[in-house]
Amino acid sequence: MNQPDTYHGKSIVVLGMAKSGSEVAKRFHALGANVTVNDKKERHLCPEASELEALGICVVLGGHPASLIHDEVSLVVKNPGIPYAAEPVQQALALGIEVVTEIEVGYHLCQAPIIGITGSNGKTTTTTWVGKMLESAELKPLVAGNIGTPFSGVAPSVAADQTVVLELSSFQLKGTTSFRPRVAALLNVVETHLDYHGSMEDYVDSKLKLFANMTADDIAVLNAEDAMCKLAALRIQARVWKFSSSNEVAVGTYVEPAYGAEGTTDLTPRHVMFRDEAGVSHRIVDVAEIGLAGRFNVDNALAACAIALAAGARPEQLAEPLRQFKGVEHRLEWVRELNGVRYFNNSKATNTIATQMALEAFPGSIILIAGGLDRGLDFKELIPYFSERVKAIVTMGQTRDIMRSVAEQAGLKMIHVVDTVDDAALAIQEAVREAEKFAQPGDLVLLSPACASWDMFPSYEERGRMFKEAVHTLK
């Protein structure tokens, strides 16, 4: 993509309204471009339309007319969620028109150094944690991207002495060309979103676009234990820092002594360590002091520390954020305790790895609520986790019967299947009530679906909110 001011007087089509589309449209309009915003939704579902029209921006709603994309269009900016198979995207590509996401636009509008964070699991927790650490280091962070604030909307107003911290999805990264963060992190890669990408290869390639324009002046932070991250290291020109809770690393963050090291147990005192590029090790904090539970949150903490240090923070500035940060909504979020039973909302667990990590965060006696959108998975990798840690299960959504079968194979006897599929509120209420019946003092009820939410809920956030509402109605 060219610099945004070079599109003065040229035609730009923005596909998908929402927050990010509206911000992009306003930015290009202010720069003198002829902007058309298109969304297939009807007008009553597009509250931003009137504001855009008042500015003189053309808004086309209710479908994608054939005349929308033509050879006079200079650029298409699409909402990340719109698939590349969509007709207007295919028309643009066939005409040789560049198609980008608002992340690419924001990059050209931003003066400040950028940190980019991606991965299949842990992005939001790690991104938020990095923001807290950079606040402690007085590096003036601004957190945006997939975490909720469109980058293109805030990019022009960010001062050069600030630091932008972006959570980035594969959907967003796929539509970038020039985007270059100064620090970039890949947390992990598991099989997911293949309904959008079509193949694991495209999914991985989209993630790796985060590093495509980095140089030896930049720093890439990678998970030393993830197979895809190991392959990624071979394709990256930036200096590589690593993080690991299982082994020491040459440069980056690690746990000392490592988990699984000879002679250690789960009760062994451990420390978060940083080894700098000069080979000097620094102790940051004891693992027991980290404010979030679970081994996977130790990995998130290690990643966040490495990213913050790469951005200029000092080791002594990270201890307090590690202690004080208590997590993000819908990610192992404590809801309440009632009659000796604890309730946790982990609605963001939209794949099996996320649910495995959640189950590992607790010692056992879990009543699990799981199930959701059917993407053709068999979920058999969950069997050992169900056997070891799950006392009872309530299944719901399109995969409810598959989850029931997996639970039976794991030897579970206490199983309830929620057959309601056309009323999400009633379904989640039934799931919570049945989970309460299974629970005894000392147990915990965990919503960790291992599936996307779109079979019944508009988002994982709405699924989590409805779960919490149902929990708070219990007496």
Description:
With 475 residues, the protein is α/β, with parallel strands linked by helices. It has three domains: 4-100, Rossmann fold (3-Layer(aba) Sandwich), CATH 3.40.50.720; 105-324, UDP-N-acetylmuramoyl-L-alanine:D-glutamate ligase (3-Layer(aba) Sandwich), CATH 3.40.1190.10; 333-472, Alpha-Beta Complex (Protein-Tyrosine Phosphatase, Chain A). It is 32% helix and 21% strand. The protein is built from 17 helices and 20 strands. The protein has helices spanning 18-30, 49-54, 87-94, 102-109, 123-136, 151-154, 170-174, 194-197, 200-208, 227-233, 295-310, 319-324, 352-360, 383-389, 400-409, 424-438, 460-472, and strands at residues 11-15, 34-39, 58-61, 73-78, 98-100, 114-118, 141-145, 163-167, 183-186, 219-223, 239-244, 252-256, 271-275, 281-286, 333-338, 341-345, 366-370, 390-395, 414-417, 444-447. The strands form three sheets. The chain has a nine-stranded mixed beta sheet, with helices on both faces. A hairpin with a 5-residue loop joins strand 13 (271-275) and strand 14. Helix 5 (123-136) packs across helix 11 (295-310). It is globular, with a radius of gyration of 23 Å. The mean pLDDT is 94.
